[in-house]
Amino acid sequence: MVVTTGSDGITPRDGWSSRSAFIFAAVGSAVGLGNLWRFPAEAGANGGGAFVLFYILCVVLIGLPILLSETLIGRHGQASAPESVRRMAYESKKSKHWGGLASLGVLGAFMVLSFYCVVGGWVLYYIGVFAQDLFTSGLVGGAFEGRPPGDIEALLPGLFGNGMLMAGLNFVFLAITLYFVSRGVSSGIEFVATWLMPAFFALFLAITVYGAFTGAFSEALSYLFTFHPEKLTGSVMLAAVGQAFFSLSLGVAGMITYGAYVGRDLNLAGTSLIIGAADTAVALLAGLCIFPIVFAAGLEANGGPGLMFQTLPIAFQQMPAGSFVGLLFFIMVGFAALTSSVGLLEAPTAWTKEKFNLSRVTASSLVAFGALVLGTMAALSFNDLADFHPLDFIPIFAGQGMFDVLDGLTAKFFMPIGAILTSIFVGWVADQRLIDGENGLSGGLHKFWRFLVRWLCPAVLTVILVVGIFPSITGAGSGG
């Protein structure tokens, strides 16, 4: 239990029971579909090794400084993300309107949650598909025996065409997320993180080892880590920066919120390094888990978003015990997706609870209901609402349905703007004595971190913001 002092005296605040609990929860929030789905797809679409090596560099120079900045704001403020920023601004004798930067992040987290649970529903669907296949075909053979690859590839479009099923799966995934968040930090969020993250890593390593012995592991290793300088183009670098930023779930107030539950005895710099290293390791292992299976089946690595949901199921067809391995794989993905969705729901729940003096159950239920409304519209944008384009009047959103609009708004606007404002606030606005008392750094490392937060992070993130809004400037697109 973390204790914080409020205007009415000292009141108890639910918090992490230990350092390891915070690390598991923070890693669980960061490690999600961005690592398992987006990273291999991005690596495959952007030439492998050049993308991967530049991605690692971006995690160190961009991701970790912002991650530490967000957690130290939360730990100092000991409140919801907007209130934590306001408290630091007040103590720094600056305008409390700086709390708006975290309010933007809270709104971003709410919007990401609304479409993230739709994708979580896809994962539940594939868990069911592989479980059914395992039950009917047995443990020994490959997945979907006797079915042509075209039928397997058609599973995802078939799901997209069923609006009722899509909306129902979104509801189930969101309901599971709500259950854990409504139980509180130590009894709910910490519980799901400390149980599911070890299970996730065990399954992850088991499938990676399986792929190493049954797939084209050396080919995948070469693909991911052989550096070809000619492939390091501007679009590849932008994609790597964007992936490093998005994979750590920065700019959506989640790490500020989680930081508020951290005790004063924890070194935030060292903990942020562990979180960043774990997140990066999962992304790299995702490539070593997926690509050996894909290459061994003679399939292409540049399948984009369809790599996980279309290419991989075809690859499982050609593997021994493919149904069983496929089932374990999607259960593993489901664990990662759930720990991330819990973090996304917690940020707006903490704000709603504090702002309107509501119980946790009421606050989380209200937020979840709002996310359900948006999420249902996002799910139906693949079918029944396919002709509904809410932001058709904005060129970069022309012709896009609700799912793509929510994704684009958060990725191109809310997340980079939130991270830019965070780096400016920590680097230039907040009293540096407050910052120095929280960040756990000293000497040359502290000076280097301050340089990154003040200069490099806002500059690079501004480039991401501009290119996201005006992709024709470089021809790089959105990096997705």
Automatic annotation (TrEMBL):
<feature type="transmembrane region" description="Helical">
    <location>
        <begin position="357"/>
        <end position="382"/>
    </location>
</feature>
<dbReference type="InterPro" id="IPR047218">
    <property type="entry name" value="YocR/YhdH-like"/>
</dbReference>
<feature type="transmembrane region" description="Helical">
    <location>
        <begin position="21"/>
        <end position="37"/>
    </location>
</feature>
<keyword id="KW-0813">Transport</keyword>
<feature type="transmembrane region" description="Helical">
    <location>
        <begin position="273"/>
        <end position="299"/>
    </location>
</feature>
<feature type="transmembrane region" description="Helical">
    <location>
        <begin position="413"/>
        <end position="430"/>
    </location>
</feature>
<protein>
    <submittedName>
        <fullName>Sodium-dependent transporter</fullName>
    </submittedName>
</protein>
<keyword id="KW-0812">Transmembrane</keyword>
<feature type="transmembrane region" description="Helical">
    <location>
        <begin position="451"/>
        <end position="473"/>
    </location>
</feature>
<dbReference type="Pfam" id="PF00209">
    <property type="entry name" value="SNF"/>
</dbReference>
<dbReference type="InterPro" id="IPR037272">
    <property type="entry name" value="SNS_sf"/>
</dbReference>
<feature type="transmembrane region" description="Helical">
    <location>
        <begin position="319"/>
        <end position="345"/>
    </location>
</feature>
<dbReference type="GO" id="GO:0016020">
    <property type="term" value="C:membrane"/>
</dbReference>
<feature type="transmembrane region" description="Helical">
    <location>
        <begin position="237"/>
        <end position="261"/>
    </location>
</feature>
<feature type="transmembrane region" description="Helical">
    <location>
        <begin position="101"/>
        <end position="127"/>
    </location>
</feature>
<feature type="transmembrane region" description="Helical">
    <location>
        <begin position="193"/>
        <end position="217"/>
    </location>
</feature>
<keyword id="KW-1133">Transmembrane helix</keyword>
<feature type="transmembrane region" description="Helical">
    <location>
        <begin position="159"/>
        <end position="181"/>
    </location>
</feature>
<dbReference type="InterPro" id="IPR000175">
    <property type="entry name" value="Na/ntran_symport"/>
</dbReference>
<feature type="transmembrane region" description="Helical">
    <location>
        <begin position="49"/>
        <end position="68"/>
    </location>
</feature>
<keyword id="KW-0472">Membrane</keyword>
